[in-house]
Design brief:
It comes from Agathobacter rectalis. By secondary structure, the protein is α+β, with helices and mostly antiparallel strands. It is 34% helix and 27% strand. The model has no long low-confidence stretch (mean pLDDT 91).
Length: 377
């Protein structure tokens, strides 16, 4: 086993930097922080010089793009935090970034989705349902492969050949030689709920400023060494609100949703704040755009505490400009340059931070939640 040692600085946001580490090389097996040093463990045949260079380059890019957080709004609360909810009968955590909900956790899922749907209904949103898969051409038009390729999860069909299908009947073959019997992918699992909306309305002219809402499964490869981080999920659900129209309409809609979210947080008495944020770019050439996003305030995040030192992003509120309306040729009647925005609420993440603050005893939960449970019978 080989090691690479990287010197860190106090100015580095290590929580952001650590998301990149496993993407320096497939040969990396683990990493740990020791004071102001990062220790990367690698396989014996790893090119440690190349890994060290990538690590230092990424560190430099992160420091260059660093910008102080701007808090837009907050609701502070002293919490007694809980960590006993990963258990059978409530939430079960599997390796690889999966959680399974049972019992009252299922009711919490319904509660949060219902609350966020009500925000969409106040905006006269149209509810729609979409499949999970997105075509490769759709993904190309979103620009996602260029901006955040690390999250991509492709879907492949088996080759349509009896000989290959016979090979698959041998269990050991599936373990060792699966790549011999699968086709080049034609689809991706959806990494962002709003992409489906843009594909649906491709080439269309919408009659007016519009709001659409959906509950969508989304999938992201956060990196093989990152799944132990709290709330880091490969497969989760989002209540999405997408809005298209004039610049004024889109900006005001995001502001209206932001106010509704803070009203909800105060009603639930949860320790949380809304901050100016940036997408989790990890490609060195893209990291500089974090600074631009923060300067333009195009992305807000709702961050909710799960212990005294850490918060989790449970929702994002985004302005897209023409990044999607242009490549998908979406028009709005009477609008010269229509733009779009979206807000996504990660349902499982809300459940996790809620349980971290309130625990699993439903008698101690807020009245709004207890009322919902009674109504469910």
């Amino acid at each position: 086993m080989k090691q690479v040692k990287i010197n860190l600085t106090d100015e580095l946001d290590f929580n952001e930097y650590r998301k990149q580490i496993c993407f320096f090389s497939q040969k990396i097996t683990s990493f740990r922080r020791e004071g102001n040093s990062l220790i990367i463990e690698c396989e014996d045949n790893a090119n440690t010089d190349k890994i060290e260079k990538k690590a230092n380059d990424a560190l430099k890019k992160n420091l260059e793009s660093k910008k102080e957080d701007i808090v837009i709004d907050e609701h502070l609360k002293k919490c007694k935090y809980h960590n006993d909810f990963y258990r059978d009968g409530f939430i079960k955590k599997n390796s690889g970034g999966f959680v399974l909900l049972e019992g009252d956790a299922v009711i919490l899922y319904e509660f949060f989705d219902n609350e966020f749907r009500k925000i969409a209904e106040k905006l006269d949103a149209k509810e729609e349902r979409y499949p999970i898969l997105l075509g490769i051409d759709t993904m190309k038009d979103t620009g996602y492969y260029r901006r955040s390729p690390q999250y991509t999860m492709f879907c492949s069909d088996v080759t349509e050949d009896f000989e290959d299908l016979e090979k698959m009947s041998n269990a050991s073959f599936v373990d060792k030689n699966l790549d011999e019997v699968i086709q080049i992918p034609s689809f991706s699992l959806s990494p962002s709920a709003c992409f489906h909306v843009y594909e649906k309305y491709r080439g269309q002219t919408m009659p007016q400023n519009s709001v659409i809402t959906l509950n969508q499964s989304v999938f992201r490869n956060e990196g093989r060494l990152n799944w132990e981080e709290f709330g880091r999920l490969r497969d989760y659900h989002v209540r999405e609100i997408v809005f298209l129209g004039t610049q004024e309409f889109v900006e005001q809609t995001r502001e209206n949703i932001r106010e509704e979210v803070m009203t909800f947080i105060r009603k639930m008495n949860m320790d949380a704040y809304i901050t100016v944020a940036a997408d989790a770019f990890i490609m060195p050439k893209m990291i500089k755009y974090k600074k631009y996003q923060k300067m333009e305030k195009s992305k807000y995040e709702v961050r909710v505490s799960y212990d005294k030192d850490h918060t989790l992003a449970a929702a994002s509120l985004n302005l897209h400009g023409t990044a999607f309306t242009s490549p998908f040729h979406i028009k709005v009647k009477g609008v010269d340059n229509p733009v779009s925005g979206c807000v996504g609420f990660g349902i499982e993440r809300w459940i996790l931070v809620f349980l971290a603050q309130y625990g699993t005893d439903s008698a101690c939960w807020p009245d709004e939640v207890k009322k919902f449970i009674r109504q469910k019978g």
